[in-house]
Amino acid sequence: MTTATRTIVMTGATRGIGLEAAREFLRRSPDTHLVVLGRGSSAAQVLPSLREVSPHVSTVDIDLSSKASVAAAGAQLEDLLDSGELPPLRGLVFNAGVQFSNALATTVDGYEKTFAVNVMSTHQLLRQLHPHIQAPARIVVTVSDAHFGDLRHTGGTMPAPQWAIPEISRPGAFHRSGDVRAGRRAYVTSKLGGIHLVHEWARRLPDGIDIVSYNPSLVVGTGLARESGGAFPFLMRWIIPLLTVTPLVDTPVPAGEKLADAILSVTPAATGAYIHRKKATASSTESYDTDRERALWNWLEQVYGQPTEGAKSAYDIRPSPVRDRDR
Ligand SMILES: NC(=O)c1ccc[n+]([C@@H]2O[C@H](COP(=O)([O-])OP(=O)(O)OC[C@H]3O[C@@H](n4cnc5c(N)ncnc54)[C@H](OP(=O)(O)O)[C@@H]3O)[C@@H](O)[C@H]2O)c1
């Protein structure tokens, strides 16, 4: 039993931007219990260092690339919240993200892994946990300005996204899917998907439960490039760090502080908004496509319509009033 007064659940808190954000968040919010959702060994490794900041931290095992694992973690969280072992849930942070050297990586469920981890698992966990969230609450989904896919935002290192549901959920959906460029395309497309998901959830969540996307921009010194292939790991290690003296590139500590600002609502933003570092601003024109967002929602609901093994129940998200919000 924790003496904290509220709970925040976070993915991607085991390294990089998320680990720094978790540290900063615990420092600034001593009355909050942070549940780190992470793969067993990663979560176990960071727990002692987070406990040095606050006693109110625990971990729940999750592999975001597995539907059964996400469902089991969700059910465990539900039990902890229902029994009062965790105080009321006041926020979720979906910060985990992956990028691969091709568009062929496949999950145990047969989905393309970038899309499964970066988009599908967010929806699965949110649909399972949203009835437990108590207002006022803020949900943050880490996305990327790479979703613009243009020279200005990616310096030419990333191709444009290519949206097609349900095709992009399957391995091999992009031209020459075995190539590094296809892996990058899968990544930027998944980050566009994260923004679409935020928009659609913002229309459906009740008042007082806000959802925003957060773009850290380019951040060196994280693990993101490790499986991305091509010249990217080299650029991230040796060349791009030289740019940290410019405002173009961040390092994990300041990027984590900005994510903590987003989580704690220090950065003002209406529900559905896209936060670029510390400021709510517009995401790409393409990212505001309500038909596409509705289609994504419907497809995800088809996928998760039946409770997966380990899930306690299926939830009906329709009753929340559907509305368009200021973005
Ligand atoms: N770095 C950048 O330049 C940049 C730019 C824009 C947006 N972003 C976004 O920022 C977020 C954080 O990225 P980062 O750069 O800090 O990368 P990172 O150091 O690689 O951190 C990624 C996090 O996601 C977790 N994760 C990955 N796959 C998982 C899985 N299957 N199950 C559970 N957890 C999983 C990792 O856990 P493990 O510790 O177990 O690996 C880790 O905590 C991502 O969403 C990324 O897309 C990054």
Number of domains: 1
Per CATH, the class reads Alpha Beta
Average predicted local confidence, pLDDT: 91
Question: What is the fourth-level CATH superfamily?
Answer: NAD(P)-binding Rossmann-like Domain
Number of helices: 9
CATH topology: Rossmann fold
The general outline is: globular
Q: Helix proportion of residues, in percent?
A: 25-40%
Bound ligands: NADP nicotinamide-adenine-dinucleotide phosphate
Give me the secondary-structure category. alpha/beta
Sequence of strands across the biggest β-sheet: 3-2-1-4-5-6-9-10
Largest sheet: 8 strands, mixed
Order of helices and strands: EHEHEHEHEHHEEHEHEEH
What is the radius of gyration computed over CA atoms, rounded to a whole number of angstroms? 18 Å
**What proportion strand?**
15-25%
Distance between the termini: 38 Å
Low-confidence runs of at least 5 consecutive residues: 311-316, 318-327
Total number of beta strands? 10
Mind telling me which CATH architecture this is? Answer: 3-Layer(aba) Sandwich
